[in-house]
Amino acid sequence: MNAGRLIHDANQIALYFAAYPHDEAVAGIADHIRKFWDPRMRASLRVILDANDETLHLLVRQAGEKLKP
């Protein structure tokens, strides 16, 4: 899966959770990615997060902290 598609998908998840209270949104995004993304997708997202890609929604970047191994 390419980086652009991962960013798009992660941002779509963030848009869904954006209506939730902040802490619930961050936890919900992390939980969704943990449950439904395969290990390769999570590893690719980690690379994108480590590169501080500004195209990722802020909530995804914050959820990334909860996804660290």
The termini sit apart by 21 Å
* Number of helical stretches of at least 4 residues: 4
> How many structural domains?
1
Protein structure class: mainly alpha
Question: Assembly type of the shown chains?
Answer: single chain
List the uncertain runs: none
- Secondary-structure element series: HHHH
Q: Percent of residues in helical segments?
A: over 70%
Task: Round the Cα radius of gyration to an integer and report it.
Answer: 11 Å
Average pLDDT score: 95
Shape: globular
Strands, count: 0
Q: Provide the β-strand percentage band.
A: under 5%
User: What about the largest sheet?
Assistant: none
Structure characterization notes:
With 69 residues, this protein is mostly helical. It has one domain (3-66). It contains four helices and no strands. α1 (3-17) packs across α2 (22-36) and α2 (22-36) crosses α4. The two termini are 21 Å apart.
Question: Which characteristics define this entry?
Answer:
globular, 69 residues, mainly alpha
Short description:
With 69 residues, the chain is mostly helical. The protein has one domain (3-66).
Write the layout of secondary structure elements.
Elements: H1 3-17, H2 22-36, H3 39-50, H4 58-66
Helix pairs in contact: 1-2, 2-4
